[in-house]
Amino acid sequence: MNSTGGALFCPRALLPEGWRSDVLLRWNAAGDLIGVTPDSVRGDAAQAAGPVIPGMPNLHSHAFQRAMAGLTETMGSPTDSFWSWRTLMYRFAQRLQPQHLEAIARHLYIEMLKAGYTSVCEFHYLHHAEGGAAYADPAELSLRVMQAAQDAGIGMTLLPVLYQHGGFGGIAPMPHQARFISSPQWMLELRERLQRVLPEDGMRRYGVAPHSLRAVAADGLAELVGGVRAQAQGADAPVHIHIAEQTKEVDDCLAWCGKRPVQLLLSLQELDTRWCLVHATHMADDEYRAVARSGAVVGLCPTTEANLGDGIIDAPRLLADGANWGIGSDSNIAINLRSELRLLEYGQRLYHRRRNMLASEAQPAVADRMFAQAVSGGALATGRAVAGLAAGQRADFVVLDGEDANLAGRGTEQLLSALVFCEHEGNPVRDVFVGGRQVVAEGRHALERQARTDYRATVSHLLND
Known about the structure:
Urease, subunit C, domain 1; TIM Barrel; 14 helices; about 35% helix; globular
């Protein structure tokens, strides 16, 4: 935290209403923007070295899976799917020790910052030691993740995950799910423990995440959500849930109760902007309409969804209904918000065989429309004030490289299009500020070399010992 606050003069900056010139950003010692003034004079403020855009919230991450990248890309069966991948993921998770998780997460969060993500929602379901044994401190692994985020300097919404069952109807969990299993009461006590040790502030929030309707029954869901709402600082806490990610999940839910997953959730809980439905890939027409009306955020993770063969959401329908949405890196095989947005649009082009699918008459530039909506929806999912460059929001922003060959000389009407749809020779992200503190300078993070060394040693140990 800067003890006095700060200021930055931006010849071009992307505000919620669009690009503006000569914008003076000012923030206080707490890291909150107190002034966003276009058509200003520079005065004694430092000047941004390139166009300035808001930091992107990453609304869905499983940090430990970063170390799995590339390990599941060899055919084990002609019918490889999400479910066979999940088995391999469970095996990998059994080997992780607290120090491994911290090293992986620290390196990952630095990667996110360098990519232009300034906050992350960590969907954290690894709670216990191997075999389900309790740690002396039940918050051991949660605190490791929080320490990694603090070291990196990224904003954090930690979402401890409730995992009770192995499938719809209360099927007993499998042995290799033992590290995830808990109860609503255990989750509520964990959240209270975290609030005591690391209280919420401008850089951190705590929500909860019922893993999915196949892993959490109706009574467990009600106890968890009701319990959180009754806790101090829990009334507006974010609630995230995996839902309708795969067709098998939809089929199993229909076979069990006669309802589709989103339809079932809507019958069990009153959704609002505090909820994030992660994936929601396979919805029927009435589900699209109902989710949009509720204000809940749909969490899209295009790279992971493609990698796992989940399918493609009807994104034009999602946007036409006015639903809130954002992007996440999920399994973290790629840490590139530009790739997530690009693949979201390209998936629709391949499916519908048309171009510029996610544009509209009011917003004809695809990248501009997607970027603005991803920032807005992602901010809702974090439960934090990270909705862009406006007074009262966090001073989270990215300075693009004004000398980047694919950005230099572009007018504002082409700038985001060039950022998202051009492949860049290097990283077009130059400087990154989180809560007014510069955490990336000229493309470098102060801890990246040591974090990379620790990460490489961790991966080597996990794969070779």
